[in-house]
Amino acid sequence: MKRVLEPELMEDEGQVQCYAQANFDAPHSQFITRLSHFINGAPFSGVALDLGCGPGDISCRFARHFTLSKVHAVDGSEAMITMARQQTPDDVNRRIRYILGMLPDVMLPQSSYELIFSNSLLHHLHDPQALWQVIKKYAKPGTHVVIMDLLRPDSSEAAHALVNTYAENEPEILQDDFYNSLLAAFTVPEIKQQLKQAGLDLEIEQISDRHVFISGIIPGAYFTKWT
Ligand SMILES: C[S@@+](CC[C@H](N)C(=O)[O-])C[C@H]1O[C@@H](n2cnc3c(N)ncnc32)[C@H](O)[C@@H]1O
After folding, report:
1. Among 124, 125, 177, which is best to mutate for testing ligand 1, by the most ligand atoms less than 8 A from CB?
2. In what order do the strands lie in the sheet with 47-51?
3. Ligand 1 closest atom vs CA 28
4. What pLDDT was estimated at residue 76?
5. How far apart are the CA of 185 and the centre of ligand 1, in A?
6. Is 52 exposed, middle or buried (0-12, 13-18, 19+ CB in 10 A)?
7. Element (H, E) at 144
8. Which letter does DSSP use for residue 186 in this model?
9. DSSP readout, 114-127?
10. Pocket test for ligand 1, best of 6, 10, 105, 122 (most atoms within 8 A of CB)
11. What pLDDT was estimated at residue 42?
12. Are 68 and 96 in contact (CB under 8 A)?
């Protein structure tokens, strides 16, 4: 099935409200567990970068899990950033800085980060290189990169089946969002090709019937190659 683009930013108030109230407990806690495992359970205490943070649920979970960490969380949607600022609980609020900005042009407060993560952004991007180029720009040797996203099923029937399995009881607007996201997502071979084009050596793993996990550590050698 060919990729069907969806609007890059989530700016519609109703859509943002619905997304912010949805229960993403299972995939988002799985994301933090996998990320933590990937960094060998180390007590990360630096500044992490969250790309396409949406209403901030993953940023907050990360900050709560890594109690000494800080997060710079970026999204191009003003409605999402406003929602994230409103929803972020007091216990993590001082450690998360929300930044309104579009990938790939966003200017970030730091020139590099030790940890860069992103959940469910890649499928939104009309040009996926926006994500990989920002990672290259803001990584340094040793930066840990952790990305999770949806995978595009083989057919629209398979996409409908996934919506019925995992979102049957959700509001219609969320079901539509999920369906559109599945159609906009990439396949494993497409992601492989994107990473090759970007010159990024990251591991790609299909971790469920609908999710892909991409991770790796940026080696020093890249930087001599890029300059
Ligand atoms: C599906 S949401 C994921 C939000 C969050 N990471 C999560 O897992 O709940 C994708 C987010 O990426 C943002 N986005 C899409 N394209 C972007 C771009 N080029 N630059 C910055 N943000 C973008 C959208 O506005 C939206 O908030």
Report:
1. 124
2. 96-100, 70-75, 47-51, 115-119, 144-150, 211-217, 203-206
3. 8
4. 98
5. 13
6. buried
7. strand 144-150
8. B
9. SEEEEES-GGG-SS
10. 10
11. 84
12. no
Per residue in 159-207, pLDDT (tens digit) is 999 999 999 999 999 999 999 999 999 999 999 999 999 999 999 999 9
Q: Yes or no: is domain 13-226 CATH 3.90.870.10?
A: no
Task: Please tell me the predicted confidence (pLDDT) of residue 214.
Answer: 98
State residue 221's pLDDT score. 54
Q: Is the CB of 177 under 6 A from ligand 1?
A: no
End-to-end CA distance of the chain: give it in Å, rounded: 38
33 phi-psi bin (left φ>0, alpha ψ -120 to 50, beta other): alpha
Q: Are strands 203-206 and 144-150 parallel, antiparallel or unpaired?
A: unpaired
Query: What confidence score (pLDDT) does residue 227 get?
Result: 34
Helix (H, G, I), strand (E, B) or coil at 98: strand
β-strand pairing of 96-100 with 70-75 = parallel
pLDDT over 50 at 100, yes or no: yes
Nearest-CA residue for ligand 1 atom 24 is 9
Residue 7 and residue 10: Cα distance in Å, rounded? 7
d(CA 166, CA 175): 9
In DSSP terms, 119 is beta-bridged to 148
